[in-house]
Specification:
The chain has a single domain (16-267), classed as Alpha-Beta Barrel (TIM Barrel), CATH 3.20.20. It contains nine helices and eight strands. The longest helix has 18 residues, at 120-137. It is of the alpha/beta class.
């Protein structure tokens, strides 16, 4: 009987410590943030964006990152929770952004018609309200959109987000949609699903994303790249996504790694 093929360890990829995971959910899972971030740095990930899904998560989880200055924050109410959102949540978000310099974007916000955990009209209402808040605060926006692209784009266009700093999180669409978003001046963040053989449209799309508007993300603990698909994702695995994209684009992996890290730090207004 043949031995099962061993997975390559992420620290053996040899990537320098200049990478950036633009989108991860590290709070509220196992409370092993220190170990997760230590592994990330050992694998070349210097900067991580932690996404707090609502004011309560922010209040409860922020202290986990007090000793980790290279973690920045995003804050927004996910469309799954739109039915529970209130004006008080918006007020809490406004207050948080006014006092915490590590909050760098309103997100992830948007529409999710795949699960429809909240009524679509309610999702649209609170998507608009959070976009209004982002415009009021002159903050960047990070979008969650699943099976709702037409409605999402219509709302963003209607509210004048074209040309403003906006990141399409977990981009998984094809070249046609990539071009629509890029024409509006936005950035695209690509997750580990690009390593899946069946992600043909996404694999084609990453070839046309301009070098200065491509970011990398894990969306940890979800969407682990090959060869760790099905396991808990974490920033340490980001290098596998980078290597696959470099292969698809015909680029030097180290150069792409560094550039995508710089793109993330530039987009979120972080020191290089």
């Amino acid at each position: 009987m043949s031995k099962k093929k061993e997975r390559q360890l992420p620290e053996t990829l040899g990537l320098p410590p200049v990478g950036a995971d633009s989108h991860a959910h590290l709070d509220g899972r196992d409370n092993d943030v220190d170990a997760v971030l230590a592994r990330a740095l050992a694998c070349g990930v210097r900067t991580v964006g932690n996404v707090f899904l609502g004011p309560a998560a922010y209040r409860e989880g922020r202290a986990l990152f007090e000793r980790h200055d290279d973690v920045f924050f995003l804050l927004g109410v996910h469309p799954h929770e739109a039915a529970k959102m209130t004006d008080a949540d918006l007020a809490d978000m406004r207050q948080a952004f006014s006092t915490d310099h590590r909050l760098r974007a309103v997100g992830e916000i948007g529409l999710d018609y795949f699960y429809d955990f909240s009524p679509r009209e309610t999702q649209q209402l609170w998507f608009r309200r959070q976009l209004e808040l982002a415009l009021e605060l002159d903050q960047r926006v990070v979008i969650h959109c699943r099976d709702a692209e037409d409605d999402c784009l219509e709302i963003l266009d209607e509210m004048g987000l074209g040309g403003r700093p906006l990141l399409w999180h977990c981009f998984g669409l094809g070249p046609e949609w990539a071009e629509k978003l890029l024409r509006r001046g936005w950035h695209l963040s690509v997750p580990g699903t690009v390593t899946y053989a069946k992600s043909e449209a996404l694999r084609e799309a990453v070839r046309i994303i301009p070098a200065d508007r491509l970011l990398l993300e894990t969306d940890a603990p979800y969407l682990s790249p090959e060869p760790y698909r099905g396991k808990r994702n974490e920033p340490a695995l980001l290098g596998f996504t980078a290597l696959e994209i470099a292969l698809l684009r015909g680029e030097n992996p180290h150069e792409l790694w560094a550039r995508c890290g710089d793109n993330a730090r530039g987009f979120f207004g972080l020191a290089g």
